[in-house]
From TrEMBL:
Gene3D superfamilies in the record: 3.40.50.1100, Biosynthetic Threonine Deaminase, Domain 3
SUPFAM superfamilies: ACT-like, Tryptophan synthase beta subunit-like PLP-dependent enzymes
Name the record gives this protein: threonine ammonia-lyase
Taxonomic source organism: Prosthecobacter fluviatilis
Pfam family, one: PALP
Requisite cofactors: pyridoxal 5'-phosphate
Catalytic activity: L-threonine = 2-oxobutanoate + NH4(+)
Source species taxonomy: Bacteria, Pseudomonadati, Verrucomicrobiota, Verrucomicrobiia, Verrucomicrobiales
Classification via PROSITE patterns: ACT_LIKE
Residues annotated as domain ACT-like: 339-411, 431-506
Length: 515
């Protein structure tokens, strides 16, 4: 029987066998590694396929190299064209340079520089990056126009059997690793090329294994396709996990996933951020957001998976360095429970310290935002964390018993963007201090208690925990007289117990803050 007449899943299995002979001229098999989840709760035995250690730091080299190896001499002479959010582009670039094929790679204008630079590194003189549109779909449109006008061969990122088969070789390595059989495999989905091929191949050997597709809540195109019975286009698309931000599942991957996936799980961006942290703390692996989606779903299902052997794939590590900082500071990446609260206190000296003394004992203040904007009352915003969820849950009751009004602002936009109001016309004799203190429990409280207490009113506070040993804050104090302000500054030691440095900022900063 001709291969084209075989059922789709059988054709894919055949193509994976052929891909075995092609992909390893471009790179070597990637390792498997055991991951032990932190915490005392029982959980699964997790094995990680480290595709982040591949030649292009993601699994996409497999499919691109397999497909381009099969091009005819005529097709090679006309070159190839593709569209990619970054990872597939690197695979095409690697294949282009190795095979001597010229490639034009269309990428969204928002593609992280780390991915653009990697494409040029792997492809050298054989690749040209064409930035087009603001999304992957717009880049695809431009690449397809190039294909029609130039006659170049389009190498699809996922909706191509040879590309899918190349990705399937990672599953072949899992089978040959000796770490199976697995009770479950959690496989992230963008267009579906990797999840379809890997689930198809693993279920050939372990038919009772549960294959779980994993998608972001705001980009679940395969889940929508399976519900509708055919691929459908998502209207809105979340691009936090940019490697899986695909608006419409591929036709071929959908056909396979209908048969090989048992279910599709969805994860939030906060859950993905938490999984990135776990990968760093356990394996010292820095994953891009889409690379951590499988682990995010496993952590979510931890209790149900206790005692089972589970496979996940770190699909890539091509993350922009700046994005790492945003993820590290996000609520989801915290290893402890957190909550943001806005609390009303009287606008008078010592009121802030009294609040900290009475209600915040045993809690870590991870973020503190306050600016004077009323003469009678203040509403500072605290983001607090605790290893003990019960201690955090008891905070509202503590506030209420102390007579404080409070409001939950967890996830509020103004808190996330640090919109701190400050009315300069309400200040009399202010001074702003740059404080560097040693990060330990109670350090801020001790500073306020020892040096400020009843001498001045706190008019501004901007502090966010960074994970360093040294915490940094910008503090504003307002004094009732110029003499009191001058006396405070004269007595203020630049270095002191519990803090490394405390310096007044210059008048130009004060003018900008209170304008």
């Amino acid at each position: 029987m001709e291969r084209e007449n075989l059922p789709l899943d059988r054709r894919l299995r055949q193509e994976i066998l052929f891909a075995r002979e092609r992909v390893y001229r471009f790179g070597q098999p990637t390792p498997m590694e055991r991951l032990i989840l932190p915490g005392s709760e029982p959980g699964p035995e997790i094995w990680v396929k480290r595709e982040d250690l591949s030649p292009v730091k993601c699994y996409k080299w497999r499919g691109a190299c397999n497909a381009m190896t099969e091009l005819t001499p005529e097709q090679r002479a006309k070159g190839v064209v593709t569209a990619s959010a970054g990872n597939h582009a690197q695979g095409v670039a690697l294949a282009a340079k190795t095979l001597g094929i010229h490639a034009r790679i269309y990428m969204p204008r928002s593609t992280p520089k780390v991915k653009q630079n990697a494409v040029l590194h792997h492809g050298g003189a054989f690749v040209r990056i064409m930035l087009a549109g603001d999304s992957y779909d717009e880049a695809v449109t431009s690449a397809r126009e190039d294909e029609r006008s130039s006659g170049a061969t389009y190498v699809h990122a996922y909706d191509d059997l040879k590309v899918m088969a190349g990705q399937g070789t990672l599953a072949d390595e899992v089978v040959l690793s000796g770490h199976g059989p697995f009770d479950a495999a959690y496989l992230q989905i963008g267009g579906g090329g990797m999840a379809s091929a890997v689930s198809c191949w693993l279920k050939t050997y372990w038919p009772h294994m549960e294959a779980v597709g994993v998608e972001g809540v705001g980009q679940a195109s395969m889940k929508a396709a399976l519900a509708a019975g055919s691929p459908v286009e998502l209207h809105d698309l979340d691009i936090f996990c940019d490697g899986t931000a695909v608006r419409k599942a591929g036709t071929h991957p959908f056909g396979i996933c209908q048969q090989s996936l048992d279910r599709v799980a969805t994860v939030t961006n906060a859950e993905v951020s938490a999984a990135i942290r776990v990968l760093w703390e356990t394996l010292r692996c820095i994953s891009e957001p889409s690379g951590a989606m499988g682990l995010a779903a496993v952590i979510k299902d931890r209790a149900a998976l206790a005692g089972k052997k589970v496979l996940i794939v770190i699909t890539g590590a091509n993350i922009d360095f700046l994005q790492l900082g945003l993820i590290a500071q996000s609520e989801g990446s915290s290893s402890t429970a957190s909550r943001a609260l806005r609390v009303r206190i009287p606008e008078r000296p010592g009121a802030m310290l009294a609040l900290l003394d009475s209600c915040f004992d045993g809690l870590n203040i991870a973020d503190f935002q306050y600016g004077l904007h009323r003469t009678d009352e203040a509403w500072p915003v605290f983001t607090v964390t605790s290893e003990n969820a019960d201690t955090l849950a008891a905070l509202p009751a503590r506030l209420e018993s102390g007579g404080y009004l409070w409001e939950d602002l967890t996830g509020a936009v103004d808190v996330a963007f640090r919109a701190i109001p400050l009315r300069g016309d309400l200040l009399t004799h202010p001074v702003f201090l740059r404080l560097d203190f040693y990060e330990r429990s109670g350090a801020l409280h001790d500073f306020l208690s020892r040096l400020i207490r009843d001498r001045a009113s706190l008019c501004y506070f901007n502090y966010r925990q960074s994970g360093e040993r040294i915490g940094r804050a910008l503090i504003g104090l307002d004094f009732h007289s110029a003499e009191a302000r001058a006396a405070f500054l004269a007595e203020l030691p630049e270095h002191g117990e519990g803090y490394r440095s405390c310096k007044p900022v210059d008048d130009a900063v004060l003018a900008r803050m209170t304008a």
